[in-house]
Amino acid sequence: MADDPTLDPADPALRQRIEETLDAIRPYLMADGGSVRLQGVTDDMVVELQLLGACGTCPMSMMTLRAGIEQAIRRAVPEITRVEAVAPAAA
Questions:
Q1: Does the residue 90 lie in any domain?
Q2: Which structural domain range is residue 60 located in?
Q3: Rounded to whole angstroms, how far apart are CA atoms 22 and 36?
């Protein structure tokens, strides 16, 4: 799918679908003192997320990322190939 020339990682509609999915997940993360921020989408259709608050230091954050967040995003936005945690963007 990442080789499909019609896929545009900068497409606002794509980003909106990702954000809507994250909005559905955030209350659960916030209940444990964490959250996520969409950093971007690469040309290979990889979602880059910044883990915030408790999610940034939680030893279970990678399990949450893979089993929870990534699965939810890929269900809602099948064009996405993977979800990765990244460091905050430089200001």
A1: no
A2: 12-85
A3: 8
Structure tokens at 13: 């509609």
Inside any domain, residue 66: yes
Count of domains for the chain:
1
Q: Model confidence at 9, in pLDDT bands (50, 70, 90)? A: confident
Residue 68 backbone dihedrals phi, psi, to 5 degrees: -110, -70
pTM: 0.86
Instruction: Please check whether residue 30 lies inside any domain of the structure.
Output: yes
- C-alpha pair distances (Å), 49 with each of 6, 18, 23, 52, 88: 23, 11, 13, 9, 9
Per-residue pLDDT band at 1 (split at 50, 70, 90): very low
